[in-house]
Every structure is written in C-alpha cells, then in structure tokens.
Amino acid sequence: MTENKKVTEKDIIAFIVIISIIALGFFIYANFIPKPLFKEKPISIEAIEITGQEGLFDVSQVLSALSGNIEIKSRTLDYNSEEAKSLIETYNIKTVPALILKSKRINEIGIDTSTFTINNNAAVFDKSVPYLELSSGEIKGKVELIEVYDPNCKDCASLSQYEKQFESLGIMVKNYNAIEYSSDQGKQLVEENSLTFSPSLLMSKEIEEYWWIFPQVKNALTETDKYYVLKDPASPYKDLSTGKVKGIVDIIYLTDKSCEDCFDITNLKQSFQSLGVFIDNEKTIDISSSEGKNLIKKYSITKVPTVILSKELSTDYLQIKNVLEQVGTFEADSSYVFRELDQLNAKYKEI
User: Fold this and answer.
1) Considering the entire predicted model, what is its pTM?
2) What Rg value do the Cα atoms of the chain yield, rounded?
3) Which of 121, 169, 179, 325 is deepest in the core (most CB within 10 A)?
4) Cis omega before residue 42 (within 30°)?
5) What residue spans in the chain does CATH classification 3.40.30 cover?
6) Fold category of 247-350 in CATH
7) What's the mean pLDDT in 271-297?
8) Can you name the CATH fold of 141-239?
C-alpha cells in the first residue's frame, strides 16, 4: 500500500518553479528560435487535369503557375472517361480542358477568383482558350487571319508579322491567308468589310474568346458581319479610294557642327519608328548653311540639334498626332518640328 505523502508549501513552490521554467523555455522557443523551425505544413493539393482534344489550351500551364507552400499531386483524365464525366457534372464544367484543385485548405492558397470558381473545397479553372464546348462538341478560339494586300505596291508594309505577335499573346492562329485585293475574293472582302486601305488585316470573331486580350484591343478594331478589322493602317499603305501610297515620311536632322558633344539627333529616328512611323529619305543639314538658316527662320527654331519631319506625319498618322504634339509642333505647312529637347536629358544648344 502506498503511503499518501503530505504536500508541503515547499513542494508547491518547487512545482511553480518547474512550470515557470517550462513556460519560459516555450516563450524563448516560440519568439527567438529562427522561423524555419516553425515552417508551416505544406498545403496538400490534388490537381486533376481534364483534357479535351489535341491542339487545345495546355491547362498544365495554369498548374505550373501556382506558387507558395503547397504540395501538389496531379493526374490527368480524358474528358470522355467516366470519372471525368462525374467531375464535369459535379462542378458544372462547360468547357475543356479544365483544371480542378482539391484541398481542405483551398481558401489559403490565394486562388484568383476572377479565373477560378471556388466550390466546396475545390477551385475549378474552365476558362481555357482554345477549348471544346461540351454542349455542342465545337472547338472554339482558333483565330483565322486574313491579309488583303496589293502585290503591285512595292512600298506597302507586310502584315505577316502579326501572326507571330498574336501567338506571343497566347492567341492560337488557325491559319493566315494573304489575298490580293484585286482578286474576286479580295474584292468581295473589300466590299463586305468596307476596307479603305491596303494592306488590311481581318480576324475571325473567335478573337472574342480571348478574355484576357480582347477587352484591351477592342477599341482598335472595327466590327463587321463576319470579322474584326484593324482600324489603323500599317505604313506605308495604299489608299484604295485614290490609289496613292501613304505613310512615307522624310526626315531632316538639323545639327550644329560647332557643338561637338551635343546629342546625336539621329537616335530619334528609332523613337519615331517605334511609334509605327515609316521613315524613307534622311537628310542632315547644319545650321551654318543657307538651307539651315532658312529652316531656323521658317520654323522659329531655338534649340538644336532637332528633327523636322515631312507633312505625311501629319496627314497619314492621325492616331499618334496627340502624342507627337506633346513634344513638338505641327507647322502651317504640316511639317513636324521636335522641340522638347529638355525631355531627352541630353546636351543641346540654344540659338
């Protein structure tokens, strides 16, 4: 038989001391030990990719973009499989490819609710483009591009680079066709879509499916019955009503040879080209020459070096005119003079 020992005041004090030591130790551990020792348990995620047909959006790109303290176990199902059909019904999925992320801690992952739908410990992404529409069996989101051009316009721009530009934005181009505007098909496209210049770029209305791009570019497009048409021409281009080639700009570099360390004004050429301006003839004129003196007087130029661009910049590039007016002036003869040399943060000379 065990004897009951009487608890003394000394025992109570000893117990309090022990508890205090334990509490102090935990306080130090929790507040001063490096945080990696307290690394939170990874969030376990089951990722299910439901695939459609070949040539559609690769939904694994969405999965690879997830980041954070997560642990992913993924698998892939064909949309025709029984398990996939059950998941499609459960989560009301309308299009494939789709991605389902399952986790009891799904709300801790920081899922973008503008692209995912959160539903009962699961996040569903079904905004793939191109995609297979399950209700109709149709594939949507493959864009057709048509360039209507004049083969006789040797100076006119080519729009073929748009195919790669579209693809770089994640837009799948089904095909790219170049059609002569004088052919029967070309004439029909010109008439049906009220085309006024060549080359013109038409794109099928599948472009609407690209929810992350289309709202941003819609204002740059004109909608017709079957297509969207790029509003602004790429220079040089042919005016179909007059037959004249437009958008070819000449540039004069007005310099001062006495200012040897002044800014190299020829560098501005690239800036104008980045705005879509096609520069053809280039000429350098020094302010000490009679021609240079005439230009200074004619345009009341007070700072050099600078550039003067021909009137085509005013008449053929209306879409950037407001931008150009912030750094220069359009003169009475429609020539353009760059004046805001201060914005270049480079050396220039006041006359």
Assistant:
1) 0.78
2) 34
3) 179
4) no
5) 141-239, 247-350
6) Glutaredoxin (3.40.30)
7) 97
8) Glutaredoxin (3.40.30)
- What does the block give as tokens for 235? 């220079």
Cβ atoms of residues 123 and 109 within 8 Å: yes
Query: Which residue reads 């006359």 in tokens?
Result: 351
Phi-psi label, residue 276: left if phi above 0, alpha if psi -120 to 50, beta otherwise: left
d(CA 206, CA 144): 8
| Ordered strands of the 245-246 beta sheet | 197-198, 237-239, 245-246
Q: Which residue has the tokens 């001063």?
A: 32
The conformational region for residue 249 under phi > 0 = left, psi -120 to 50 = alpha, else beta, is beta
Tokens of 38: 């307290």
Residue 247 corresponds to which tokens in the numbers above? 């958008």
SS (H, E, C) the chain: CCCCCCCCHHHHHHHHHHHHHHHHHHHHHHHHCCHHHHCCCCEEEEEEEEECCCCCCCCHHHHHCCCCCEEEEEEEEECCCHHHHHHHHHCCCCEECEEEEECCCHHHCCCCCCCCEECCCEEEECCCCCEEECCCCCEECEEEEEEEECCCCCCCCCCCHHHHHHHHCCCEEEEEEEEECCCHHHHHHHHHCCCCEECEEEEEHHHHHCCCCHHHHHHHEEECCCEEEECCCCCCEEECCCCCEECEEEEEEEECCCCCCCCCHHHHHHHHHHCCCEEEEEEEEECCCHHHHHHHHHHCCCEECEEEECCHHHHHCHHHHHHHCCCEEECCCCCEEECCHHHHCCCCEEC
Contacts of 160 (CB under 8 A, 6+ apart): 147, 176, 178
pLDDT at 11 over 50: no
Give the tens place of pLDDT for each residue, 87-135: 999 999 999 999 999 999 998 888 889 999 998 899 999 999 999 999 9
